[in-house]
């Protein structure tokens, strides 16, 4: 392969560096109105009365819309493909504006004004009287009988799930040891550089156009249609460049409301941009989980059974809800062999911001509990943490008993071997017995598995359209969205490789427009390279076949003996040049009889999936008196099949590991237990790692080939964020002998536990 | 048919009336630079020296570019499809800027500044010294030996053409009478509401984007590529709404230069908008012609031979050049039967603005001479003007001996019969013998034929793409351009009719973008409804077939027995509803196994043509002392096959006839014979008819069906403008007995001739 596998500079690099790439906020629309939401200041209750008269009277205010003005029906917001099967549909529990407030930040009303400042001022002029209930912030509180339900009729249970595979009784009986423990993870925020921003206007034919920083334009169109109760084709969604999403924009946070607001001002453009504070308190967060795990194991470290109970806390609205807990359970199952495995989970409503999709989609939580627990078992049995993992990894070709996914490629063992070498595991382990002193070093490892897309749970439709110009260059349109991950570059490489043209001859349209972009479900589930890549490759193959067939007609040389290499039609057997591709393309545009410019408009419904694997190896130095953990070395080693663009892949790993480090050590949204008010809602208080805090991150890949993936590729987007936390937790354990079962592992927590265990 | 044939309100009506439709000038681009051309003030000569130092020194000026800075190679500008056959290519005689100036207004340099006013000021600071030659404004002057050639090596002859069919010697011998005469037509301007306007910028990958008020985005892309000497795929052309073109924008007037200028300022956006004065003097005009015609006829009025010699004056650059004279000759041939026919023409360079395409493309000139001359013959033989025409019209099914076009439908006779009735021809004729007095009334008629597109001369590729949404509504993309003629509405009707959905479920993308719009050659040659319509219908048929096939799979009812009516799948035999289309469309988006949204991306290479016919009937009252001609009644009767939208068709006729009236009576660009300077270059001096000057225009259609056209339709765009001039000329002759062989027939000319012939 000439172009796939090469570290091409990303196609949007210059535009992004120079600032010419246009984001939502770079769009200038004359006469744009600005909207601000009036948000609940209480976590739980309802609005007894609202007075918007002062707001309406403020000069520059165009309209004030309240919960009284919105449709009565509810709609879902999660960025999932639609299903006609009601049992497969997302929970529709949200109104455009609400009288029943469910978290601090819930949207009660919206002010539309001629500028943002006026909208902000008017928002502050709205008076409201609440009836307040005690905030529900924990599982215990949510399940307390007799309290007002957050959503009537639910008992505050959004969903339940689980499975049991294998003969559990036998497996329990065969176990030499049984281990049980409890873990918990925290609420974190995505912190994409670009906050949520969208504007909407109406075309003169009454259709609504929404321009949004979204990962999911086609799904967004459907949800806006549902929210407003209009046919989905009456909505058009346009996605310009986007400053990150991380799953937060696999949801419809502002689009339904701006779409509704424009209908209230005769179709004038209405924009709503959330501030950083609003993004923290009123968009989406990562689900906090509480876990109880139990594992049966033989003396040699072979797993006999595993049992996980999970409670996921979801906030005030469903969003992705129970899907996260389900995914947590699937990845818990797929990683190791055992005789029997059981998972049970429930997702509860609370009075916190809605938890939605976030990089890893429940799996960072799953891997934190299972990989931490596995180290505790290894330690108890005096087994090497790497050895116990190697012992339990299923062979390549293993078929999951429930979803039927076959791991046609599985490089997890190679990842572990590679990571051991990189960090000099054995050498350091043997030198570290019985450390004393205040600074102690330790090694940790954690493994993960992840899927490439959502099959068979979700639909995996992707589309690609290619048109070839007279000079042989092509335009590529996809419905999948570039959200910073580099998918536009990867798709361009695939097209150049497949057709046989230089990368400079591939022009990708980075903007998605649901009116014209091929239908694709969007960017999530680490599906772009694998799922959309299949459609892209299919379209490129169709173009190549058309070119060679046309060339056959022109040259009388059979298509089968020709190839396209670097923009030339050549003999396949010896590479001898026959004619420039541009001659063929020009003829296909201009021949009086045969003219028919080459196009391909392809949909691919992928009903396969591929497991990506990998692990984190880390060496830490723990300063016992201060509780500070320094990362000395960290390596993420990935089996993502063929790496289409090594530099971009490294970038994904660097970003993901950085996110994982924050998850392990620093990041957490806290809420006042009495009022439910968020205590942290800005980037000063929220301890996001900066470049200065971030250690050098080693990104490595093992060489596998996924037969179902385009050019052998499989998922890479989310995996890097998954295992830093358990690896660091295990390294701290290795250094200090102290187990930390709750994230994040902040200095405060470390000191408290070191004191409790007598280290200080 | 439910929707085709109905007077649907045009799809862009509300947007245009409310001002929300976005034209080039409505696009706001931050940091836009403005360019003004420095134009020659002499008609013929060259620049001995140029001094741009003062212009460069003016604050706000970013760059001054002169003929020294542009590529040496020349390029063509005409909006014709490209041909690899050099003999079929347009004449490439233009540089981006020129030292050798060829008319007053020729572009010598360009100033780029931060705003338009500064650019205008700086343009006035450029000093230039010319060497001046005598201006060449007539055929005689152009062919004078020894003068400096306008383009070296041409002898000022841009092209020659002609044909001879049949046995001329025999035909001459068989004639009872031979008539000969001379005619001439003037220079007129298009006067589209929107002047020429375009801006260009560079994408970060170096591609050039041109946003232009153009009729021909795909051809414009190619010409910009040629002009700059870069691969055509490195250019992207976007066409927003456009305020009229009439053929003037079937040319590249400003696009190559703005595309070049942006490359000189590091890709910053550069805009060039011609003022009305610049549009008059330096865009395109209609070719003036000089004719000599000779006709042999038998005693009963049967034509035996016809012979036409034409000289077309083309201005300083080729533009569409000789093609116009060729088209003039083709339509001269196709209208009547005769034993032999001959045509010879040449097109000469002069020092006037380049003549290009304009509504009718040489045919208003052809019909003025032949239809005027025919009336003179009828008068000489004492035959009724309608009768002599009816006698010589070929039967339906007549095949043109040269281009092979078969007139599968020909309603010209029906048009004549209908026109006679409308104007009460026989009744008025019989009452009008021997008028005296100063006010005299007369009746006139003139016929025309016109083609639907350019086959077999030009390539006729058109494309359409349709995608269906979940609710069964569709988006339609075409590469053909809505330029006010209503094509977007007509295409939408075709799609609604073909698929079987309400018009409100068809969303047409009015903007063309060469990166994504299906390849189409653009709007010209009255080709949209006929040529692009074929592609649109084909795409819609493909969608319908896919829907019914999918419905077969869902319902188990064979596709062949189902139909789609008003958004429902129904039984074909009795119309009974089976399921809403939306159910099928939604399933095709969401079914886990079969999901594949319905799309069609179709190219049609039309190798057919269809002749449209029609005539003008007019009654005038001539005020002999003042030379004023009043139009009492005027009717245009058209055979354009099926009329897809009667109201829009009427609008076409009203606009075209109005243009024809101005051509007949008022409009003319005049040039100072000594200096070549245009004497008329604004809408005050140029006598464009206003609403107050325009009589009530009767638009009528006869009922024919063109088998090759979509739904039986054929050309209508240009035809209405063709025959008002000869019909009025013939009516004046009828009223006064005086022949006017030169256009326009202004009061000054009428008075002069009435004086010469003793009427006053």
UniProtKB/TrEMBL annotation, chains A, B:
GO cellular component: xanthine dehydrogenase complex
Top-level taxon: Bacteria
GO MF term (any one): xanthine dehydrogenase activity
Keyword Ligase: no
Keywords: Molybdenum, Oxidoreductase
SUPFAM superfamilies, per database record: CO dehydrogenase molybdoprotein N-domain-like (SSF54665), Molybdenum cofactor-binding domain (SSF56003)
Pfam family, one: MoCoBD_1
Gene3D superfamilies: Aldehyde oxidase/xanthine dehydrogenase, a/b hammerhead, Aldehyde oxidase/xanthine dehydrogenase, molybdopterin binding domain
Domain annotation Aldehyde oxidase/xanthine dehydrogenase a/b hammerhead: ranges: 18-134
Coiled-coil regions listed: none
Enzyme Commission identifier(s): 1.17.1.4
Top-rank EC class of the record's enzyme: oxidoreductase
Designated name of the protein: Xanthine dehydrogenase molybdenum-binding subunit XdhA
Gene assigned in the entry: xdhA
């Amino acid at each position: 392969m000439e172009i796939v596998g090469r570290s091409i500079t990303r196609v949007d690099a210059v535009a992004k560096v120079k600032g010419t790439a246009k984001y939502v906020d770079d769009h200038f629309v004359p006469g744009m109105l600005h909207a601000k939401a009036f948000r609940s200041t209480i976590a739980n209750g309802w609005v007894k009365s609202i007075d918007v008269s002062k707001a309406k009277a403020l000069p520059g205010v165009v309209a004030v819309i309240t919960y009284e003005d919105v449709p009565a029906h509810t709609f879902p917001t999660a960025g999932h493909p639609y299903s006609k099967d009601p049992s497969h549909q997302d929970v529709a529990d949200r109104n455009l504006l609400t009288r029943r407030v469910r978290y601090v930040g819930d949207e009660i009303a919206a002010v539309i004004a001629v500028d943002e400042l006026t909208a902000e001022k008017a928002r502050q002029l709205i008076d409201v009287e609440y009836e307040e209930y005690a905030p529900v912030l924990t599982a215990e509180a949510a399940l307390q009988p007799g309290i007002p339900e957050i959503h009537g009729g639910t008992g505050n249970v959004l969903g339940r799930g689980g499975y049991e595979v294998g003969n559990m009784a036998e497996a329990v009986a065969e176990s030499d040891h049984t281990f049980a423990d409890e873990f918990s993870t925290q609420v974190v925020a995505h912190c994409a550089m670009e906050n949520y921003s969208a504007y909407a206007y109406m075309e003169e034919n009454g259709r609504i156009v929404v321009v949004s920083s979204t990962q999911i334009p086609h799904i967004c169109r459907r949800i806006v249609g549902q929210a407003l109760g209009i046919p989905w084709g009456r909505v058009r969604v346009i996605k310009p460049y986007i400053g990150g999403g991380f799953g937060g924009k696999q949801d419809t946070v502002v689009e339904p409301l701006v779409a509704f607001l424009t209908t209230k001002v005769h179709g004038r453009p209405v924009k709503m941009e959330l501030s950083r504070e609003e993004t923290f308190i009123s968009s989406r967060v990562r689900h906090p989980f509480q876990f109880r795990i139990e594992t049966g194991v033989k003396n040699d470290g072979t797993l006999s059974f595993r049992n996980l109970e999970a409670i996921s806390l979801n906030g005030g609205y469903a969003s992705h809800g129970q899907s996260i807990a389900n995914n947590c359970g699937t990845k818990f199952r797929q990683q190791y062999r055992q005789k029997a495995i059981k998972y049970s989970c429930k997702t509860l409503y609370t009075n916190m911001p809605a938890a939605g999709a976030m990089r890893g989609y429940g799996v960072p939580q799953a891997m934190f509990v299972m990989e931490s627990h596995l180290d505790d078992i290894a330690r108890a049995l005096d087994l090497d943490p790497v050895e116990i993992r190697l012992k339990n990894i299923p062979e390549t070709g293993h078929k999951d008993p429930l979803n039927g996914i076959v791991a046609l490629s599985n490089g997890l063992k190679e990842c572990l071997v590679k990571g051991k070498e990189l960090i000099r595991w054995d050498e350091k382990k043997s030198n570290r017995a019985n450390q004393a002193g205040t600074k102690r070093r330790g090694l940790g490892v954690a493994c993960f598995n992840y899927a490439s897309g959502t099959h068979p749970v979700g639909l995996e439709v992707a589309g690609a359209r290619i048109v070839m110009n007279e000079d042989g260059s092509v335009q590529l349109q996809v419905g999948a969205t570039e959200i910073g991950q580099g998918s536009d570059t990867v798709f361009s490489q695939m097209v150049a490789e497949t057709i046989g043209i230089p990368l400079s001859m591939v022009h990708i349209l980075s903007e998605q427009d649901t009116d014209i972009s091929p239908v694709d479900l969007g960017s999530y589930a680490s599906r772009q390279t694998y799922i959309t890549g299949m459609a892209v490759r299919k379209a490129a193959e169709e173009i190549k076949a058309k070119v060679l067939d046309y060339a056959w007609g022109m040259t009388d040389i059979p298509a089968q003996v020709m190839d396209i290499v670097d923009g030339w039609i050549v003999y396949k057997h010896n590479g001898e040049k026959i004619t420039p591709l541009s001659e063929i393309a020009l003829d296909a545009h201009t021949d009086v009889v045969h003219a028919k410019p080459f196009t391909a408009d392809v949909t691919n419904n992928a009903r396969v999936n591929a497991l990506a694997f990998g692990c984190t190896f880390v060496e830490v130095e723990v300063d016992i008196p201060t509780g500070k953990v320094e990362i000395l070395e960290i390596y993420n080693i990935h089996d993502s099949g063929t790496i289409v663009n090594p530099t971009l892949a490294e970038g994904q790993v660097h970003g993901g590991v950085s996110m994982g480090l924050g998850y392990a050590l620093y990041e957490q949204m806290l809420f006042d237990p009495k009022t439910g008010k968020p205590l942290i809602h800005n980037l000063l208080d929220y301890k996001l790692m900066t470049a200065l805090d971030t250690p050098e991150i080693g990104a490595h890949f093992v060489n596998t080939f996924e037969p179902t993936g385009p050019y052998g590729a499989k998922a890479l987007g989310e995996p890097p964020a998954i295992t830093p936390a358990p690896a660091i937790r295990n390294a701290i354990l290795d250094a200090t002998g102290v187990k930390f079962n709750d994230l994040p592992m902040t200095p405060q927590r470390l000191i408290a536990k070191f004191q409790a265990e007598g280290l200080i």
